[in-house]
Amino acid sequence: MNVTVRNRLAGVIAAGLLAVAGPAWAQIGPVQTPTLPGLPTGATDRMPLLGEVERRANEGLDRALQAPSRLTRLISRSGGRLEADPSGWPVVRGEIVAVDLSDPAREEALAAGFSILREERLDALDLTALVLAPPRRMALASAVERLRRMDPQADITFNHVHAPAGEVGEGRGGVAAAGPQDAGARLGLIDTGVEATHPALVGAAITQRGFAGPPRMGAHGLAVASLMVGRSGAFTGGAPGAALRVADIYGGDPAGGSSTALAQALAWMVEGRVPVVNVSLVGPRNALVERAVARARARGVTVVAAVGNDGPAAAPLFPASYEGVIGVTAVNARNQVLPEAGRGDQVDFAAPGADMAAAGQAGSWTAVRGSSFAAPIVAGLLARDGEAALARQAIDLGARGRDPIFGAGLVGVEARVEPRAMGARGRLAR
Fold first, then answer.
1. Does residue 309 sit in the same domain as residue 391?
2. Parallel, antiparallel, or unpaired for β 276-279 and 302-306?
3. pLDDT tens sequence across 143-171
């Protein structure tokens, strides 16, 4: 990026950060400046040093600018399994998802050269998705638009891929043991598979199931699971020792994390009557996932999701932004919101998400950063205390009352353990 453009963008972000400076920024230290006209006495004492604002603005800009390149890399590394939708988001190549496609439209589509790849019945959600391939030599985006014209009342969409909303130390995944069958899990996790034998998780009954092949342990899911139900020495998750049902929607598949897999995982959570499900993943709005989330909520499931790390000016990410989902942002060790964290009405709570340890592969510990790791803390607390009680416990850090940066406030501060306290190895992966 051109340096001048970058500096201008950083200036815009810095101005925005100054505009919302409040109790969370107060911890940076007072600034000895005269009272400014139009500001109440003492207001300038809460403003951060300009150098600190610029540094944080650039840090947030760095992370926001990584989002498009991260998605591009995801596509390029898929071996041709993924392509981009018109907005640039990764989708499964050659797959169109149709919900409530009428019989006449179905016949018309088949006559036009569309073919049915599979029909996915999600009985627990009373939902059926038809997955079709486009006619030969027709671009996927064009095929989606053509199918929409055939049946304007149906929900026709791409099979979007969802990405983790946080960063962990480097490492390779391995096949995850299925674990014992849960006897009424209190919590559910939709992510990668986990290492159930990790010291942080040995006290929790963990059931795993794969929705993109056999369950496969991944660093992201393991770290998130530990912050939900883990317990080891000084380390405790939101609901330590609680039974956990893990749905691996990646399975080592280059096209893992698809919307169809996520919907299947939600149906499995409903079948198991899991009351609280954490999804530390982000994607664009998707008709199938939105329907699945709504049906799961109607059946008593509380869905918790990370708001994402694409920057304060980014468009809302999903599933955190679907109606009724509990969206969670992240703060650092000084209870300052991460510069890269999403903002908006989708933010319901803030929780620790940086400067802290989580479970790492092969029994190790690692440093983590991102809203991915704040969401599981909130999920665990919700399973333990309920939303009303959690809201009463929340520490109001932003503008008085609910606000688009911290939501109802900060919870779960006791879940943050410094990386060095657990002997964490490695730094952020990207």
1. yes
2. parallel
3. 999 999 999 999 999 999 999 987 775 54
